[in-house]
Amino acid sequence: MEKLGIQPIPLLLQVINFLILLLILKKYLYVPILNMLKERKKKIEEGLEYSEKMKVEFEKSEKKRTEIIEKGKLEAQKIVEEAKKEAKKKENEVIARADKEASEIIAKAEKEITIMSEKLNKDLHKKAIAIAAKMVEKLISSDLTEEIHRSIIDKKLKEVERQLK
After folding, report:
1. Which residues touch 140 (CB under 8 Å, ≥6 apart)?
2. Residue range 140-153, pLDDT digits in tens
3. Nearest Cα to 137, choosing from 154, 124, 149?
4. How far is it, in rounded angstroms, from Cα 96 to Cα 13?
5. Which of 63, 116, 35 is nearest to 55 (CA)?
6. What is the Cα–Cα distance from 138 to 132, expressed in whole angstroms?
7. Is the overall model pTM greater than 0.90, yes or no?
8. What is the CA radius of gyration of the chain?
């Protein structure tokens, strides 16, 4: 080996130095770096797992939020429909009440008109009879005898009594 220019003692010392350096590096540098890389890999995996969990949780909460919004819309729609039904019911009640009151007022007015009309007809009839009786009396008193006069008056009074009944 000496012919090649390699000296065995310095080569052996260099190999020993290299092995010592390798052991020192392994103990103080390689193992801690590997541990640090393992921990980092573990943290990255945990982060990815956590990220997946959060993604699933987010999707669940998003789905739940959508369901809640849909339920809220349905409930709001039901409330609006119920309010419309109630308003329509109240409207129908008010219209029915107004129709009933109008019918009652019309019936009362018709009754009053009928009563008043009958009263006016009776009054008019009585006045017409009274006028006719006076006219007959004036005619009879001047041209007829007392006996004929009495029979006509009695006859007319009986007619008037029949008509009044």
Report:
1. 148, 149, 152, 153
2. 666 556 777 678 77
3. 149
4. 119
5. 63
6. 10
7. no
8. 63
Q: Are 163 and 125 in contact, with CB atoms under 8 Å apart?
A: yes
What would the DSSP string read from start to end of the chain? -TTTT--HHHHHHHHHHHHHHHHHHIIIIIHHHHHHHHHHHHHHHHHHHHHHHHHHHHHHHHHHHHHHHHHHHHHHHHHHHHHHHHHHHHHHHHHHHHHHHHHHHHHHHHHHHHHHHHHHHHHHHHHHHHHHHHHHHHHHHHHS-HHHHHHHHHHHHHHHHHHH-
Residue 14 has pLDDT above 70, yes or no: yes
**Which tokens hold the place of 61?**
């909460």
CA pair distance 26, 30, nearest whole angstrom: 4
116's torsion region: left (phi>0), alpha (psi -120 to 50) or beta? Answer: alpha
State the amino acid at position 123 in one-letter form: D
Domain boundaries, the chain: 8-117
The number of angstroms, rounded, from the C-alpha of 134 to the middle of its chain's C-alpha atoms is 78
